[in-house]
UniProtKB/TrEMBL annotation:
Protein name in the entry: UBP-type zinc finger domain-containing protein
Annotated signal peptide: none
Annotated source species: Actinomycetospora atypica
Domain UBP-type intervals: 18-77
Region Disordered, residue ranges: 77-115
Database matches in Pfam families: zf-UBP
Domain of life: Bacteria
Gene3D superfamilies: Zinc/RING finger domain, C3HC4 (zinc finger)
Amino acid sequence: MTETSEIDPAAAPSGPGCLECEQTDGWWFHLRRCAACGHVGCCDSSPSQHATAHARSAGHPILTSYEPGEYWFYDDRTGDVAEGPDIAAPRHHPEDQTTPGPEDRVPADWVSRLH
């Protein structure tokens, strides 16, 4: 993927975890970051699936991983995965943050709650 109006390399991430889950004391499996505005949301395997919900409601179809060591972009319209431009740091959540997380809110039966 190349830089387009759908990717803003200067957009900083909204925080270290899923914005909506943080507001509701929820938890997530993996995190995704909006390439247009930096919104950090939980992935589609997570119970609340906030990243894709944001992409669709905001009209921001390009997501990128917010996991350490993962540097890919995903187009929600087509399902295409590709490399993309460098984006504002940090590229991922803090390395000491648990997956799933945050650790103190993850239920014991978390695996059974994944999509």
